[in-house]
Fold this protein.
Amino acid sequence: MTEIVQRTLIVLKPDAVQRGIAGELLGRFERRGLRFAALRLVTVERALAELHYAVHKGKFFYEDLVKTISASPVVAAVLEGPNAIAVVRAMVGATRPHEAAPGTIRGDYALVGLRNLVHASDAPETAAAEIALWFPEGPIAYTRDVERWMTDEGAPS
């Protein structure tokens, strides 16, 4: 069975950066076998925050989302790999930290609501739009030899 190679966006929110666990969280994705296709530390201006959370405009929590992501620098990254969107979402865990399973990022590190450490794209269309928003210059394409040892494609038999 051939796996679908996808790209997805993650944003390590201000609470991850302020707590000094951004590197540890990035390492979890890399150790899983995902490849970084783009990575940056960025201060989120209100305009970017509003565009990123536009789907939630009008909801009671919208303003809190915008303020929270703009409060401190974030780490934005594009991750790439087989079924990357589903893999990342599973690694991140439930949106509400108290509902997140142990072993997930939120289950291991988060406690409450907006302090849930990481945003992860939820679908291919969302990922494409978010990647274009956060990385207008586009991700970088490259290969790693180790990938043939982590997938069914090209593995020695």
Summary: Residues 5-143 form a domain with the Alpha-Beta Plaits fold (CATH 3.30.70.141). DSSP finds seven helices and four strands in the chain. The beta strands are 5-12, 35-42, 74-82, 118-120. Residues 22-32 form the longest helix (11 residues).
